[in-house]
Amino acid sequence: MYKLYNFQNSGNCYKIRLLMNQLGIEYESIEVNILQRESRTEEFLTINPNGRVPVLQVGEKYLPESNAAIWYLAEGSKFIPTDRFERAQALQWMFFVSAQ
Ligand SMILES: N[C@@H](CCC(=O)N[C@@H](CS)C(=O)NCC(=O)O)C(=O)O
């Protein structure tokens, strides 16, 4: 089962939870209170040296960056277009949003 290092009020975390719900993917949520700097502890920095949530845990591996997690989870689903140009457009919007 996946684990999601997660802060309830974070939009970057929300979009992963939304996708997992849409795809019916089960996961364990591990709440990291960023307001109490729980993402900056020595322990958490071994999970993500960037000190931020979300982080998706896949087996023994950690995947920070919400868009990377979304791309990983959505592979093979209707959320990643099969058409090459449309796939690039999906990435276009993901890059656009992360640059705002
Ligand atoms: N580009 C990253 C941004 C992650 C990010 O900014 N996370 C914020 C919450 S939305 C965070 O963990 N802030 C805590 C901190 O910087 O200590 C992503 O998309 O996952």
TrEMBL record:
Residues 1-81 form the GST N-terminal domain. Pfam families: GST_N. InterPro entries: Glutathione_S-Trfase, Glutathione_S-Trfase_N, Thioredoxin-like_sf. CDD domains: GST_N_4. This is GST N-terminal domain-containing protein. It comes from Zhongshania marina.
